[in-house]
Design goal:
Helix content is about 30%, strand content about 25%. By secondary structure, the chain is an alpha+beta fold. It has one domain (about 5-170): 3-Layer(aba) Sandwich (Aminopeptidase), CATH 3.40.630. Strand 3 and strand 4 (about 80-90) form a beta hairpin. The longest helix is centred in the middle third of the chain and has 15 residues, at about 95-110. The mean pLDDT is about 95.
């Protein structure tokens, strides 16, 4: 058995070409849910869009044995660091990589004086809201203006409002 050498580091410009394929592979998990299977073939974030997150210092990459296997993209809100996308290649899921990426984002948020991590996700998909709840994220009932805007954007992109939720991880 080969030992797993996992590292998480800031994403570099020369990494971005690998990221759309990781997101596509991660989305493959939605094929198991007939109502959401369309997401497996949906649009992914382009390398050019990834480059913007890299330039702002808001992207981190997980490497397993020096190969990219996951990433997290964030954006700074008034008091929180919002997780735009967390993707781990389907073949690498369940190994704690997503947790490590979230921990890296939380560390960045603390260092920049932000009080929490926030995100929007599917309420009933096991590897979405239930996963985040196990990590300490709480459901947000009163949305900040930024989270309200995110939820409205999701609805405009075809995601049923009632299937989604906003979550927050306080960083103390």
């Amino acid at each position: 058995m080969v030992a797993l050498n996992l590292t998480v580091r800031p994403t570099r410009a020369d990494d971005v070409t690998a990221l759309p394929a990781i997101e596509r592979a991660a989305a493959g998990r939605f094929r198991d849910d007939p109502a959401l299977a369309w997401l497996a073939e949906g649009e992914v974030i382009s390398a050019e869009q990834h480059l913007g997150y890299v330039e702002r210092g808001l992207s981190w990459l997980a490497l397993a044995n020096d190969s990219p296997v996951g990433f997290i993209l964030t954006e700074a809100h008034t008091s929180s660091l919002f997780i735009v996308e967390l993707s781990v290649d389907l073949d690498w899921q369940g190994k704690g990589i997503g947790r490590q990426l979230i921990a890296c984002a939380a560390d960045h948020a603390r260092k920049t004086g932000l009080a929490s991590l926030t995100l929007t996700t599917f309420r009933d998909v096991p590897w979405n809201a239930p996963f985040y709840a196990r990590l300490g994220f709480e459901y947000v009932t009163v949305l900040t203006p930024e989270l309200r805007q995110k939820r409205e954007e999701e609805t405009a992109h075809g995601l049923a409002y009632e299937t989604r939720c906003a979550m927050r991880l306080p960083l103390s």
